[in-house]
């Protein structure tokens, strides 16, 4: 609680969300002790203590959103032995119409100039999207001309599905095979399609080859560095980005064996080999699942800041970017908006690196909402 992010929307309809005025506007259920503490840096925050009587209770602020109807905003935790600390609280209601209006306004601001032109007639033949719009590419494109024609007429950016991954290029230790991605890359380049490097390493233990899992820390470090040098040096300057350590919030294969700074060290190594590429932290369920505690926006931001600050990352010009895998079912627009606004405070690019919506009769409508 030393230096939390600023509350979104200046707190919205929440009063005293930074607790600079003590607990004014806040309350606590019977049996819960609520107090305001001050961190060594001078930041004030609320603490809910001794919650044994009601383990699910903490500090509460009541708000009136509709006539004669009250709602309560509170943070809870089932483990009564833990204190709950609260700061930078915000809540901003909006309607579906307001969301659509803001979406249109933001798109217009990004894609249109602010200078109106009168008494002119325009004829537009759109040959390509004006913003990065891509799709995954599989190796079958090398042998199916119809697939190549369909793909190359629609997309500006691509990510190879599996063909650059470690388990595809070095299935057997010390026997590397890049023939497939070596053929796919020039095909994309011929059509002006930019390629994202996917992935340098994957933190999921299930995605490691059988020969990798039993390596001791020293052997794993050597194999990991060899992999980084091999794939990044081979395609440096030919790809626009790297998914460096894939899904390192949900998984921790390399951290569990090489220490908590494994990810930041890997980002530094990749940056030294390809300083021009964007280095993504690629993660799922940060944007689409509010109940997935492994990948909450605050945890994403904390991990990204650790990567950026490690060994002078910012001073060295580490070009990190936010990569959000986006596997949607029913849209939760308020949570999506709050997540994007939270991550935007990092001040670095945000890409939706994967987008899909569960099939069904509402799929088209949900895609439009997203």
Automatic annotation (TrEMBL):
Xref: Gene3D superfamilies: Glycosidases
Annotated ranges, domain GH10: 112-370
Keywords associated with the record: Carbohydrate metabolism, Hydrolase, Polysaccharide degradation
Gene Ontology molecular-function annotations: endo-1,4-beta-xylanase activity
SUPFAM superfamilies linked: (Trans)glycosidases (SSF51445)
Superkingdom in the source lineage: Eukaryota
InterPro entries per record: GH, GH10, GH10_dom
Pfam families (UniProt xref): Glyco_hydro_10
Signal peptide per UniProt: none
Single GO biological process annotation from the record: polysaccharide catabolic process
The family this protein is said to belong to: Belongs to the glycosyl hydrolase 10 (cellulase F) family.
Official protein name in the record: Anti-sigma-I factor RsgI6
Species annotation: Dichanthelium oligosanthes
């Amino acid at each position: 609680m030393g230096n939390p992010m600023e509350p979104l929307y200046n707190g919205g309809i929440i009063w005293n969300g930074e607790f600079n005025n003590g607990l004014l506007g806040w309350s606590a259920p019977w049996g819960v002790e609520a107090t305001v503490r001050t961190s060594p840096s001078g930041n004030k925050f609320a603490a809910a203590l001794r919650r044994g009587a009601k383990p699910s209770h903490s500090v509460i602020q009541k708000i009136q959103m509709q006539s004669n109807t009250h709602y309560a905003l509170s943070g809870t935790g089932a483990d009564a032995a833990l204190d709950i600390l609260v700061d930078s609280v915000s809540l901003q209601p909006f309607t579906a119409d307001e969301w659509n209006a803001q979406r249109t306004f933001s798109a217009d601001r990004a894609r249109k100039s602010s200078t109106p032109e009168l008494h002119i007639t325009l004829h537009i033949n759109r040959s390509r999207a004006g913003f990065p719009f891509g799709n995954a590419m599989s190796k079958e494109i090398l042998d199916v001309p119809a697939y190549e024609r369909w793909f190359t007429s629609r997309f500006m950016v691509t990510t190879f599905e599996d063909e650059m991954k470690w388990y595809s290029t070095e299935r057997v230790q010390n026997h590397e095979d890049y023939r497939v991605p070596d053929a796919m890359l020039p095909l994309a380049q011929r059509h002006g399609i930019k390629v994202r490097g996917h992935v340098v390493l994957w933190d999921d233990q299930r995605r490691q080859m059988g020969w990798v899992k039993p390596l001791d820390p020293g052997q794993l470090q050597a194999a990991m560095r060899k992999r980084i040098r091999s794939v990044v040096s081979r395609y440096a300057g030919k790809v626009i980005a790297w998914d460096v350590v894939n899904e390192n919030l949900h998984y921790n294969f390399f951290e569990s064996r090489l220490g908590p700074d494994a990810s930041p060290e890997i980002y530094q190594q990749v940056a030294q080999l390809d300083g021009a590429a964007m280095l993504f932290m690629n993660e799922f369920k940060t944007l689409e699942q509010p109940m997935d505690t492994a990948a909450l926006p605050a945890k994403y931001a904390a991990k990204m800041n650790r990567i950026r600050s490690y060994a002078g990352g910012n001073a060295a010009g580490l070009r990190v970017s936010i990569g959000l895998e986006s596997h949607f079912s029913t849209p939760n627009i308020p949570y999506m908006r709050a997540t994007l606004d939270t991550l935007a405070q990092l001040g670095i690019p945000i890409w939706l690196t994967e987008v899909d919506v569960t099939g069904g009769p509402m799929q088209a409508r949900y895609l439009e909402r997203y």
